Amino acid sequence: AKQLGADILSADAEGDDDRQFQQVQDMIKAGIKVLVLLPHDTAKASRMADAAKSANVKVISYDRLVQNSDIDLYVSFDRVEIGRMQAEYLIQQAPKGNYVLIAGSPNDEGAKTLHDAQIDVLRPYLDRGDIKVIADGYTKDWIPTEAYLFTLQAMNSAHGDIAAILASNDGLASGAIQALREHHLAGKVAVSGQDADLAAVICIAQGTQAMTVYKPIATEAETAAEEAVRLAKGEKTHADGTTNNGKMNVPTILLKPVLVTKDNIMTTVVKDGFQKLKSINHELSGDQQIK
């Protein structure tokens, strides 16, 4: 954004909705032209977008979509595609058996979008009885320990008979894998993820996590910066679709996510510099090393 000639005000609310609202109000008073907002709670964030719009400030909803408010642009990765990728890959690994679904925060509209996309892929397998969902729930604030407890409960009720765990992100996957480790099932149950966290990439190399979804964040950030400058200049955005947020069809730019498995760690996250090969291999035994 600075390279494009913009002056930047930035703040991090560290997951506090009221603090984020105060930060937005302070920015509006400081005279911003465009607000790029990554909402913590997509429903509560509508007051922030409304405050900006009433002050004639353009609003870009970044990564998560603010609900029920007037938004100029939504920039994110295609969450429907991510949900599909996760479910389709697990079905390849485990076309039959008991599935556990661990969705994200109930306050995050993106978590619901992911979950719905996963169910759409699973539907024919559920209808045929090939796959049975034995546990399915949302997770407060995407907290890994909640996923750990949820997995333990599912394992107890199914007496350890689980074929796959559809975890919506890597944090949830890590909680699930910890529970599997304690029951000597890590590596025997296919586990999905999202975000290509270092710990997840290491688990994929070790064979305890089946896949993750890499979202090239630099591309997302650059796109948002370019579009913010366009809006500030009164120019049209490069939106090529829309997403309904309960109030309007928000002009949208959806970027393409990337499937990461054991076979393509080098050509995806390592090649882009998102994760360092040295950091991955540091945690791996000799025969697991990525080359």
Describe this structure in words.
By secondary structure, the chain is an alpha/beta fold. The protein is 41% helix and 17% strand. It has helices at 17-29, 46-54, 79-93, 109-128, 144-157, 170-182, 198-206, 217-232, 266-270, 277-282, and strands at 34-37, 58-62, 73-77, 97-102, 131-137, 164-167, 190-191, 212-214, 241-244, 249-255, 258-260. The longest helix is centred in the middle third of the chain and has 20 residues, at 109-128. The protein is globular, with a radius of gyration of 20 Å.
User: In percent, how much strand structure appears in the residues?
Assistant: 15-25%
Q: Please identify the structural class as seen in this structure.
A: alpha/beta
The gross shape turns out to be: globular
Number of helical regions? 10
Q: Kindly provide the radius of gyration, computed on alpha-carbon positions and rounded to a whole number of angstroms.
A: 20 Å
Terminal Cα span: 36 Å
- The low-pLDDT segments are none
Total strand segments:
11
Give the ordered list of helices and strands.
Answer: HEHEEHEHEHEHEHEHEEEHH
Which strands sit side by side, in order, in the main sheet? 1-2-3-10-9
State the share of residues found in helices, binned by percent.
40-55%
Biggest sheet architecture = 5 strands, mixed
Kindly report the average pLDDT value: 96
Task: Spell out the blueprint of helices and strands.
Layout: H1 17-29, E1 34-37, H2 46-54, E2 58-62, E3 73-77, H3 79-93, E4 97-102, H4 109-128, E5 131-137, H5 144-157, E6 164-167, H6 170-182, E7 190-191, H7 198-206, E8 212-214, H8 217-232, E9 241-244, E10 249-255, E11 258-260, H9 266-270, H10 277-282
Parallel strand pairs: 1-2, 2-3, 3-10, 4-5, 4-6, 6-7
Antiparallel strand pairs: 8-11, 9-10
